[in-house]
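Class I SAM-dependent methyltransferase, pasting as requested.
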Amino acid sequence: MSFSTRHLDRARAESFGAAAEDYDRFRPTYPADLMDDLARLRASEVLDVGCGTGKAAAALSARGLSVFGIEPDHRMAQVARRRGIRVETTTFETWDPRGRRFDLLVSADAWHWVNPAEGAGKAARVLVPGGHIARFWSFHVLDGPILEDLGRIYAEHAPGVEVGGARQKSTAGVRDPLSAGDDFVSVAQREYRWSLTLNGDEWIGLISTFSDHHRMDPRSRSVLFAKIRGLIDDRGGTVRTTSGTFLQLARRV
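C-alpha cells follow.
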C-alpha cells in the first residue's frame, strides 16, 4: 500500500490554528452536490476527522446528520463549536473512541495529515461493517494568463512556495490507497467542479490560509501579497477560479 509522508510535517499540519478566524472566513464551503451525495448514504452517526472550523460538519448537520468532530488544534475546534458542532480536541491517532461506532467517517482537506497506516486501521475499527469513509480535497486554479505572471512573482519573492492558484494535477487514474488493504473497497472517486470570483483582498485571504504561505517570513509574505494584489488590480480587480473537490469514497467490508 502506497502512502504519503505529509503527515510527518507536524509544524505545517499544526500551523492552521494561528489563522483559524481567517480560515473560517476565506475558505469556501464544500459543494452542495457533494454534501447531498454524502447525506444520501443515510448515516445515523458521522465522524469528521480533522473537522477544522466545522465547514463540512455544519453542512452535513444542516442535512439532518448527527456529526461528531475531532480536531487537533483548539483554536480551530473553538470556531467549530460556535457552529454547534460537538468536537474533541485531539488527533485521530490518539483519540479514544470509547466503544463508539459510526456509519460514516468524513475528512475534508485533512486526511493527508493523518498517519496513513494508523488512520486506515483506526477508521476500520470505528466504522460499522458497511459504513463508509469519505475523504475529499478542494483546489482552486486561477483562470487565464495570470498564472504566468504569478509564477514570475513567486520565483522572485517566494521561491520554494507553491504558486497559489497553480494548475491542478489530473486525478485520472488515481487509485484509492485504502482499496489496497483488506478492510475497505473503493465505492467511487468523483470530482465536483465549481468556480469562484474573488477580488484581490479575497484571493489574498484565501491563499493566506494555505500552510506554506502562512509559514513564510512575515515581511516576505507581505511583499508577496502586495505584488499579487497589484497584479490583480492591474487585471481589472477580480480573478476567477476553476475550482473542484475530489472525493474518494470507500466502504468498510
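Note for the archive: The chain has a mean pLDDT of 92.
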